[in-house]
Amino acid sequence: AQSVSQHNHHVILSEAASLELGCNYSYGGTVNLFWYVQYPGQHLQLLLKYFSGDPLVKGIKGFEAEFIKSKFSFNLRKPSVQWSDTAEYFCAVSHSSYKLIFGSGTRLLVRP
Amino acid sequence: KAGVTQTPRYLIKTRGQQVTLSCSPISGHRSVSWYQQTPGQGLQFLFEYFSETQRNKGNFPGRFSGRQFSNSRSEMNVSTLELGDSALYLCASSLLATSDTGELFFGEGSRLTVL
Predict the structure, then answer these.
(1) How would you write the pLDDT of chain B (115 residues) with one tens digit per residue?
(2) Residues 6 or more apart in contact with residue B110 via CB below 8 angstroms
(3) DSSP structure class, residue B52
(4) CB within 8 Å: A44 and B48
(5) What sign for the dihedral angle of Cα B100, A4, A65, A47?
C-alpha cells in the first residue's frame, strides 16, 4: 500500500537557522507531491506542490522542496526560519486514480 | 470566496451514540474528502466523494459512512461511537477529483469527543 513517512516528528530551531524536513513515499510510479502546513489555531493549507517538470519547487513564505525520484523523497527546506514558521507540516502524495495520502506530520517550533 | 465550512465545530457524545457531521465545500468545488486527524496518527483518509459518487474509501470500519448531495455538500456519519473515535474530523474540497489535482482546501474541522 502507498505510504508516506516523515521521520522527524518534532523539530526545534532557533530563528535564522536552516530547516530541512524529510519526506519519503513508497509508491514507485508517477506521483504528485505536496507539503501542507497547519499554523496554530488555523486550518491546513497548501505550502507547495510538485506535479512534473523542475524537481525544485518553490512555495509560499520562502519554502522550497526538492523531488528526488531515485530516493523517493520530497524534502522541504527553508534557508532561514522565522518564529512565525512555528507550525505542523504535512507531506502528502497522490497518484492517478488514488487518494491523497498524508504523512504523520512534523511539529516545528522556532524559538525567537 | 467563502471557504470550506464544517458544522458543528465541537461536539461531545457518549459511547454507542451516533453522530453526523456536515461539510459545505467552496462554491464550485465538486470533490469533498474527509480525514480523521489524531495526535498520534496524523491525517487518516476516510473517503472522497465526487459528483455524489464515492470515489475512494480508506481503511475504516463500516460504522463510518458518508454521502454527497447534488449541491456538493457532504455529510459523514459515525454510528455506535467508540472512545477511539475521538478526533478532529476534517473536510476538504477541491475543484476536480483529488486524484487529478491533489490540491485540497480544508475546513477548520469538527472536534468530536466521545465519553
Answers:
(1) 679 999 999 999 999 999 999 999 999 998 999 999 998 788 999 999 998 999 888 899 999 999 999 999 999 999 999 999 999 999 999 887 655 666 889 999 999 999 9
(2) B6, B7, B8, B9, B10, B11, B21, B88, B89, B91
(3) T
(4) no
(5) positive
The cell for A36 is: 501542507
> pLDDT digit string (tens) for A60-75?
999 999 999 999 999 9
B49-B53-B57-B63 Cα dihedral, nearest 10 degrees: 100
Q: How far is B35 from chain A (nearest CA, A)?
A: 10
In this structure, what C-alpha cell is assigned to residue A39?
499554523
* Long-range contacts at A53-58 (CB < 8 A, ≥ 24 apart): none
Residues forming beta bridges with residue B91, ordered by sequence position = B34
Strands A73-78 and A64-68: antiparallel
Angle at the Cα of B51 (from B49 to B55), degrees rounded to 5?
Answer: 35
Closest among B22, B24, B21, B33 to B3, alpha carbons compared: B24
Could A100 and B109 be called an inter-chain contact, meaning their C-beta atoms sit closer than 8 Å? no
pLDDT at A28: 75
Distance from CA of A51 to the nearest CA of B (A): 9
Under a CB-based contact definition with an 8 Å cutoff, are residues A31 and A23 in contact? no
B42–A103 C-beta distance less than 8 A: yes
Interstrand relation of A106-111 and A10-14 (parallel, antiparallel or unpaired): parallel
SS3 B100: helix
